[in-house]
Amino acid sequence: MTLPLASRIALVTGASRGIGYATARALARAGAHIVAVARTQGGLEELDDEIRKDGGDATLVPLSLTDFEGIARLGAALHERHGKLDILVGNAGVAGPSSPLGHIELKPWNDVVAVNITANFQLIRCMEPLLKQSDAGRAVFVTSGAANQANAYLGPYAASKAALETLVRVWANETASTPLRVNLFSPGPIRTRMRAAVFPGEDPMTLETPEQVAELIVPMCAPGWNETGKLFDYKTRTLMSFRAPA
Predict the structure, then answer these.
(1) Dihedral sign for Cα atoms in the order 90, 174, 130, 220
(2) What is the average pLDDT across 193-214?
(3) DSSP 8-state assignment for residue 114
(4) Which of 60, 169, 193, 226 has the smallest number of CB atoms closer than 10 Å to its CB?
């Protein structure tokens, strides 16, 4: 039986744990070769072990996404090795400080912006030519309800996710006449380490798992997915169009 993503190359950031880890495994089970990017070598090796157990294969890339030149080198390496990229899952993100805006120092603000915004901008710059070499390039970026809820004390995270959404929508508009499809995925409250750090009093067993989320990211990466510039809201299982504020 031919797997739905056989022979496709999928780059997943933040692949060493949480939603990125689960998505990388799910894409591999569907037949994709995974290019797994994360800072932690140990987490990547664990992912590789699980992918191999499932019968898949992966290329491990220990890389901090704040190494913007490293992202460019990765793009060049993928071009040399594969000549294309079929799937980009921009999942990596940091929560940043939970504090009133006036109490946040400039460095932690810049750290959040570097990972949540600038790294994804650099991924777009460096991976777009490769995605356009695919017959059906697909890009999915993981956002958050915080982008529009403007939660108190989560300013850097909320602002960075709002900026990410606009960045991705601009790219979707720029590529609308090409085969490339670009979308956002909002998972909502999920049982991850980041969620536990931001909401330590919450019972994680009341939350759905990264594995459940990954099962709905995979279809958005498939050649048969034709929507672009949309946001899939996992909590309501709804594909949403953006509209201007009232």
Answers:
(1) positive
(2) 69
(3) I
(4) 226
